[in-house]
Amino acid sequence: MRDNTTQPLPPDPLALSILAQVGLRRPATLPLDQEEQQHIAFQHPEWPMRLAAVQALGTWSQDAPLEPLLAALRDEHHAVRAAAARTLSKQGSRVPVEPLVAALQDTAWQVRTEAALALGKHWQRAPVEPIVSRLSDADDAVRAAAAWALGELRERAPIEPLTLALQDDAWSVREAAALALRQTGARMPAAALAAAQQDPDSAVRQAAGFALRAQGIGQPAPDPAVVPPAQGAPPAVFLSSPGRAAVAIISVLMLVPLSLGLLLSGNDADNTALVGRLIALGIVCGTIATINSIANHHSKGDTQ
Amino acid sequence: MQQGSPTSGAYQVFSLAHYYEQLVLLYSRPLTAFALRLTGHVEDAEDIVQDALIRAYYALERYPAERILALKVRPWLYKITWNTYCNYTGRAKAPAMLSLDASDEDAPPEPEEREEEQPDKIFETRERRQEVEALVATLPQRYREVITLHYLEELSQQEIAEMLNQPVGTIRVALHRGIRLLRKTLGIELKGGK
Q1: Alpha-carbon torsion B17, B20, B25, B29, what sign?
Q2: For residue range A170-204, what is the model confidence (pLDDT) as tens digits?
Q3: For the whole prediction, is pTM greater than 0.90?
Q4: Tens digits of residue pLDDT in A160-171
Q5: Which is the most buried residue in B117, B131, B147, B162, by most CB within 10 A?
Q6: Closest among A234, A252, A233 to A292, alpha carbons compared
Q7: Which chain B residue is nearest to residue A184, measuring alpha carbons?
Q8: Helix B42-62 with B73-89: angle, nearest 10 deg
Q9: Contact A179 B67 (CB under 8 A)
Q10: Do A152 and B6 touch (CB under 8 A)?
């Protein structure tokens, strides 16, 4: 983000409305401690109150009552239906997928998108065909969400529809298809993704690159979880340079005969001579260690 | 965020909400100003930006962490807003640009583009900027959009080219001709004002 925009302005009503619609701000405050109050809120004539009621249930980890949420999927206002689909996506395996599949046919693109995303999150039980049919949705956000959901199916992900989606008119769908194909492992259509690397849109090219690199094609995929080694860090491979190997062999060959010569020669009864030979042996060892150290230093410099 | 999804990641769980909230708070106003320049109607502009930023959220929710980390947020948001504007108004995503001849595409600045008349100078002062913004609104659409994106929204020619799905050279020529037209209009206005 740009430096000149880092000072946040006071939130405007539009921003708050957007955040409320994606469930990041409550459009209204509701005391939902009691079952009766919840019931009242879900039946409230004002849709922001009903939206707030759905979003309040979304704060329950995985034990929100399903019945009001499933009913909210049929609410007259699309924001309430979309919020219901979103909340249902977080409620674990007890959520029936059929209402979410039905929501893929909703009149509002937000609800169809949320339903596709929710089915992607319930990937173990999500049916393939209804999601594939959304790849031809009129709205590009729905098509992109469908492509993502199909990718989440992994081994069940259909390759051909996703490959066709790489030709979609909308860059966001082509990008989503490329990212979804990354999930398909060895079945990934490498040629189609290689072609997508020539896409006019940089986001699509980048997504195709991510996918191909995930299969070891192209450069290694960057893993954000792993901190890259700092500049100047030692190379991971020991004796990677032939020069270092040669120095090590020469060191051993020099040290053994010199050590034997120094230790076996002379008179052991003469303590002064013995001390002298031990000092000489130390000097030899020190010299060899110094040569190795210098050679290693140069070798590191070569590998950086 | 999700029950055991293959791509569910700690990154999304812990930072997506905060990231998006910051993004909305930072960009809702500039994007609304941009949409307002395009549409000329406050309500339409707000509808477009609301739609665009919700689409942005759905995209972020789908994106793997490496995509989010690689994201250039500002041009990405403008691209989404542009697409939403096109869908909203039913206009073609790629504007009907001029037919270009190659010599014009590579043309150096014309002799009359002295320093005080160059585009950056035209938009420099606040008072003048407001005046020029009003004049930009009177330009033909194909010039108005690229001038707005480049000089008012400060997107690069490359970013505009990608957003409009046009070659960079086409954008450069449209900017060049748009500025020439703007300068001519500005000159006439100044003369008329004297």
Answers
A1: negative
A2: 999 999 999 999 999 889 999 999 999 999 999 99
A3: no
A4: 999 999 999 999
A5: B147
A6: A252
A7: B6
A8: 130
A9: yes
A10: yes
